[in-house]
Amino acid sequence: MTGSAERARHWTYTELPGVDLLRARYVRKTFARHTHEHYVMAAVTDGVDVFHHTGADRHAGPGTLALINPDTPHTGRGGGPEGWRYGAVYPAPELVAAIAAETTAIRGTPGFIDPVFADSYAVALVHQVLRAAEEGNALAADTVLRLAVTRLLRHNGGARPERTVRSAGERVAARARAVLEERLTDPPTLERLATGLGVSPFALLRAFREAYGMPPHAWLTDARVRRARHLLDAGTTPAEAAAAVGFTDQPHLNRHFTRIVGVPPGAYQRERKNVQDRPARPLVASPAWQNEHHPRNGQPPRTYAKPPPLPQPPRSRRTGRADRTPPSSATPSVSAWRSASPGSPSA
């Protein structure tokens, strides 16, 4: 990788409802333990993304994807001094469930099995979704997103285990979480929370960590940032959002928001608002196409070999005439596209 500046763009595309988009290059960035409401499909292009997930450090390098299911605690940092660069799409659970029901045999809630998956073709698909969204190519963005989700679920997916509360500790953790959700801006101390639930502080701490992968105070911060994101998307200012979710002030929100989302709340809101307010751009040929078909500097346009003639329909043995039986109108399955070259959908 060249250059040392960290940069990130977190945005949405109106033609892809329920999907968040991200392009980022981080060097010294570290993500605090957090969760996502959506699925994470992060395609690494340079460096190594190291993230703690399900009890172990995972390493995603070039040509691999970091795949994280909703509400799964994880962290994030670079695997070396050069940092890492990646692009990610975050489809909503409802969208992934609909795609899985149509294109896979998964029954139940779909999910990714391995958090790191090596598939250069899927990596290319993720970046094609981002490029199509940036170019305003709604048809390509939606098509390639569905291909990417289908491919990853077919090769690295299955039904997620249903979460049921069975043990006494899990029931205590669930009750504690409900209290924190209700008292997001005025949470009790650990001791008061435990006393109200009839357990000791350490018993509550252990049960909560086992159930949700993080202690109550970390879960509370994550929940506040998640709520702040919804408020920012609705047009609330960062200062107002900070007060509404329980942070002491906007710098307090800025610090935690950046450690979890990857960009400051002001930049997050500006980028997403700019996307929503941006007028539709006219469809124009890409620069590569223009250079190819309208060359400059006196260079002749590229020429291509004449394509071979289309095959003729077979002749009937009985009449000797061409068989005009119309072909099947069935749409090819997604799997039929798998072997195609991952060229730019917006070219």
UniProtKB/TrEMBL annotation:
User: What's a single GO MF annotation on this record?
Assistant: sequence-specific DNA binding
Q: Which UniProt keywords apply?
A: DNA-binding, Transcription, Transcription regulation
- Bias class Basic and acidic residues marks the residues at 269-280
Q: Where is the HTH araC/xylS-type domain?
A: 174-271
PROSITE patterns linked: HTH_ARAC_FAMILY_2 (PS01124)
Q: Which residues cross the membrane?
A: none
Q: Cite the record's Low complexity compositional bias ranges.
A: 325-336
- In residue numbers, the region (Disordered) covers 264-347
Q: Which InterPro entries match?
A: AraC-bd (IPR003313), AraC_XylS_family_regulators (IPR050204), Homeodomain-like_sf (IPR009057), HTH-like (IPR037923), HTH_AraC (IPR018060)
- Please report the name of this protein according to its UniProt entry: Transcriptional regulator
Q: Organism classification, top ranks?
A: Bacteria, Bacillati, Actinomycetota, Actinomycetes, Kitasatosporales
